[in-house]
Specification:
Chains A, B: InterPro entries: Asp_semialdehyde_DH_beta, NAD(P)-bd_dom_sf, Semialdehyde_DH_NAD-bd, Semialdhyde_DH_dimer_dom. Two copies of one chain form a homodimer. Chain A is an alpha/beta fold. Chain A has ten helices and 15 strands. A seven-stranded mixed beta sheet of chain A has the order 3-4-2-1-5-6-7, with helices on both faces. A six-stranded mixed beta sheet of chain A has the order 11-8-12-15-14-13. In chain A, β6, α3 and β7 form a beta-alpha-beta unit. In chain A, α1 crosses α10 and α4 runs parallel beside α7. Chains A and B meet through β8, α5, β10, β11 and β12 of A and β8, α5, β10, β11 and β12 of B.
Chain lengths: 369, 369
């Protein structure tokens, strides 16, 4: 199948709808993305699935139909209105501009363009309007750690004005892709039934290969995510700071973050302390968050109700609990939040941005069949 | 063996040294405590091992000798100079005063007396002198979460004066006793080789019984430790606040804490943000911590060096790494710290306090053979 030129713009009922390309369709995030495209209200005409050369020709199911995977090349973007990228940053850095040059709006979930001043960084529940101004034709989404907490923070900020943020993360291995999940599963198999984790060095000996991580991840926590960025910081921690500032439109927001990998398959968590310009109450925070799109409040600790990854995995919203006012600061609010790093933390946010663009195309440049 | 009355005060070479009773000798912390008594410079005369009725008569090894376990009763304290308690708070609440009434100084690792204004709360590296003033004859040690970070914080505070503390913990299951460890091991066996942790609810179904925890602990993190204390807080979080204030002698210190249980067997970790009255630098923090007793600096993230529970387990010091100055606050310092919750977090601190008392007894009331 040659994707260029005269392809039909979707089947019956889809005529006139925008054409979508999904780049990275076979990866961990791509797989979730196809699931979301199949579950959500369908706004798309043709959907083209794109991946690396070695996956070309495979057939994947999206919207209940088998679709053949195309090899990544410039002409797959011809006639595409929107291209969603679920690929590593170095791939997006080249191919998102290529998609734009063929006429598509590129939506990128990688780190490649997040801090580019000519690329809006968008979380639809927080700053949807920012997606409309895209000098490079590219819209980016934040990293999964920022996305875990930013929807809840955005709602609270709208009420009270955020001035300081302190975050400690509990990050799942699926954010490192298949090798992260495989490494944890293999290490769990190695430690199951042993006494590992009780004597110095025994865990390293038992798990052997640490895969993509600098230390064992089974029965351990690893205070290092991303890569080293100098002055003691990691790229992931600087990303949380820079992206929170950009999404919230607060370029001088004070942010401190410690990013820690934990032996959880999917769903990031964060312990958040937020300080606002105004006094807060836990009751009002409940009210704000209960009414915020993309947030579920799960907060009755006396009854054992608070979010954990086991509850949030596979779901779309941010689950917020353990909400309380700081004991020593009437402007301080603390909470714990869990969000599926493959859904809202990656695929879902990308799809939502794609849908914003689709709506804009429908409004602004109606396409007739 | 009748422990009361005319027991010999230890064998040859131990004459004149204080007599020690260890209450809770058969528990998880008690086991570590006996190991420490066997490893450390021996300051004790007779050591009596005490546990509940059902463990009486068992023989345990301490200092290379087999010692029969005595059933907890008032007369086990007759002639004891120091009694170390490694038992639940409700047991200590009754038996520590009983030991005092028989003439011993009681050192309690439980929560029973920590916030009693007539009981000093002691971390020997930080406030050893406080152990000398004990109106009730009891000295308490903080909870394992406070102990994870307080030695490093104490050293930094001595230089810069702490004014605000924000902590997120990563707490190991052995702090819940044998049932915590057994629960994690059983859940790990249940999830090993499965796909659990990827779909809503599948983890709860796979692990079944959650043991002492309100949610699965394998492949999960649980933002709840201790019990519910009202206003959204847990007892563990309030303990971190109250104990940090008391040990550091800062009754108005601003503290926020979120305590989270993670699937680690032994060794608590904490992501700490500390704000001081004075400006800080990471270099000076390294220098202070490298010279602080009870602290090991492990901090070269560019070379993959930072502390994890797998490295710190089974060792005595607090392992500190990821040390950096806050990007948006020259008075803010952030670091990650790991400490064995059974050693410094429990048994070691108790033993160290016991040794302080032993030294005081040697100085103040010399006992001749």
């Amino acid at each position: 199948m040659n994707p260029a030129g005269g392809l039909p713009r979707g089947g019956t009922g889809r005529a006139g709808r925008p054409t979508l390309a999904v780049v990275g369709a076979t990866g961990v995030v791509g797989t979730v993305l196809l699931g979301l495209l199949s579950e959500r209200a369908d706004v798309w005409g043709e959907i083209r699935l794109v991946a690396s050369e070695r996956s070309a020709g495979r057939k994947l199911t999206v919207r209940g139909e088998q679709v053949e995977v195309l090899a990544l090349a410039e002409d797959v973007f011809d006639g595409a209105d929107v291209a969603l990228f679920a690929v590593p940053g170095e791939v997006a850095a080249h191919w998102a501009p290529a998609a734009v040059s063929r006429g598509a709006v590129a939506v990128d979930g990688s780190a490649a363009f997040r801090m580019d001043p000519d690329v809006p960084l968008v979380v639809p529940e927080v700053n949807a309007r920012a997606a409309r101004v895209r000098p490079r034709g590219i819209v980016a989404g934040p990293c999964c750690t920022t996305l875990t907490m930013i929807v809840a923070l955005g709602a609270l900020h709208a009420e009270w004005c955020l001035e300081e943020l302190s975050v400690a993360s509990y990050q799942a291995v699926s954010a490192s892709g298949r090798c992260g999940v495989d490494t944890l599963r293999e290490q769990l198999a190695a430690v199951a039934g042993t006494e590992a984790g009780t004597q110095p060095g025994d865990l390293r000996r038992t798990v052997g290969d640490t895969g993509p991580y600098p230390a064992p991840i089974a029965l351990n926590v690893v205070p290092f995510a991303g890569s080293f960025a100098g002055d003691g910081w990691t790229t992931e921690e600087l990303a949380v700071r820079g992206e929170s500032r950009k999404v919230l439109g607060l370029p001088r927001l004070r942010v401190s973050a410690t990013c820690v990998r934990v032996p959880v398959v999917t769903t990031h968590s964060a312990a958040v302390r937020a300080r606002f310009e105004n006094e807060v109450t836990a009751e009002k925070a409940h009210e704000i968050l209960a009414g915020a799109p993309g947030v579920v409040v799960c907060d009755d600790p006396a009854a054992g109700e608070f979010p954990t990854p086991a509850d949030a995995v596979g779901t779309d919203p941010a689950w917020v609990g353990r909400i309380r006012r700081s004991l020593d600061d009437p402007q301080g609010l603390e909470f714990f939040v869990c969000g599926d790093n493959l859904r809202k933390g990656a695929a879902l946010n990308t799809v939502q941005i794609g849908e914003l663009i689709a709506a804009e195309l429908r409004e602004g440049r109606p396409r007739l069949p």
